[in-house]
């Protein structure tokens, strides 16, 4: 289903994400982050007791992306590509690729921020998800413009491993292929001691909203507008 008609709007970058269908989890996450990528509107943050800082501060970094997990990281279109060509190739890939089912999701700390990750982290579904992401990274790579010098330098500030550096050079992003880790980001980087407090406040709110199993049945094309906010442009059913 088309999320919203934006045929005349230009987008700076595109990405392929996993985003939950409209429902309790998607609604809470949009409120929590303060941005609904489906409607392209800001949302009022919830009031949760026990947080170390206002929700707006905790979620400032992930807000612009909307609630999602990355499969094909954000990229600028190559000069030889277009949004129409990208959409056609993504539709063709979705028709060939199968849905992925995970046992569930759980709240976890990753590198100083909080996110939803696959429950247990390792099972057949997690491997199938990694393969799905790899298909998209490879299958859509001809649509991606090469990253500029400034972007490469910014990526390298994180201190990349040899494999991550090779990914950056080949695919334009360090954390793909074997380095891919499925996660749905809920906060920016937290200061020491904050993660436990945010987790304690978030966990009881999220617990009844997390689906079991968690089924990934479609691919979501997102576009970044000129203000830097990402919008859900279309869902493509995984029909393989």
Q: Can you lay out the helices and strands and say which pair or pack?
A:
Elements: E1 13-18, H1 24-33, E2 35-36, E3 41-42, H2 55-58, H3 60-63, E4 69-75, H4 83-96, E5 100-102, E6 105-110, E7 113-118, H5 124-139, H6 149-156, H7 162-171, E8 184-185, H8 194-206, E9 214-216, E10 218-224, E11 230-237
Structure explained in plain terms:
The chain has 240 residues and is α+β, with helices and mostly antiparallel strands. It has helices at 24-33, 55-58, 60-63, 83-96, 124-139, 149-156, 162-171, 194-206; strands at 13-18, 35-36, 41-42, 69-75, 100-102, 105-110, 113-118, 184-185, 214-216, 218-224, 230-237. The two termini are 18 Å apart.
Question: Which H/E pattern describes the elements?
Answer: EHEEHHEHEEEHHHEHEEE
Query: How many DSSP helices?
Result: 8
User: Mean pLDDT, rounded to whole units?
Assistant: 93
User: What is the helical fraction, as a range of percent?
Assistant: 25-40%
CA radius of gyration is 17 Å
Please supply descriptive tags for the structure shown above.
about 240 residues; alpha+beta; Cyclic Phosphodiesterase, Chain: A; disordered N terminus; 4-stranded antiparallel beta sheet; about 35% helix; 3-stranded antiparallel beta sheet
Summarize it.
With 240 residues, the protein is α+β, with helices and mostly antiparallel strands.
């Amino acid at each position: 289903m088309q999320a919203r008609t934006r045929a005349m709007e230009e987008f700076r970058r595109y990405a392929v994400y996993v985003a939950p269908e409209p429902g309790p989890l998607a609604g809470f996450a949009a409120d929590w982050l303060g941005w609904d990528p489906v409607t392209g509107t800001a949302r009022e943050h919830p009031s949760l007791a026990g947080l170390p800082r206002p929700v707006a501060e905790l979620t400032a970094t992930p807000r612009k992306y909307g609630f999602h997990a990355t499969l094909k990281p954000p990229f600028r279109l190559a000069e030889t590509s277009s949004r129409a060509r990208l959409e056609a190739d993504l539709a063709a890939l979705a028709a060939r690729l199968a849905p992925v089912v995970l046992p569930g999701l759980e709240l976890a700390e990753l590198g100083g921020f909080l996110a939803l990750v696959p429950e247990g982290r390792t099972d057949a579904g997690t491997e199938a998800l990694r393969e799905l992401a790899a298909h998209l990274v490879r299958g859509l790579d001809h649509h991606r413009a090469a990253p500029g010098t400034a972007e490469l330098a910014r990526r390298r500030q994180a201190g990349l491993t040899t494999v991550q550096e090779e990914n950056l050079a080949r695919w334009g992003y360090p954390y793909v292929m074997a380095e891919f880790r499925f996660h749905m980001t809920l906060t920016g980087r937290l200061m020491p001691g904050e993660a436990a407090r945010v987790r304690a406040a978030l966990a009881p709110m999220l617990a009844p909203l997390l689906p079991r199993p968690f089924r990934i049945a479609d691919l979501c094309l997102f576009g970044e507008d000129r203000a830097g906010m990402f919008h859900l442009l279309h869902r493509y059913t995984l029909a393989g």
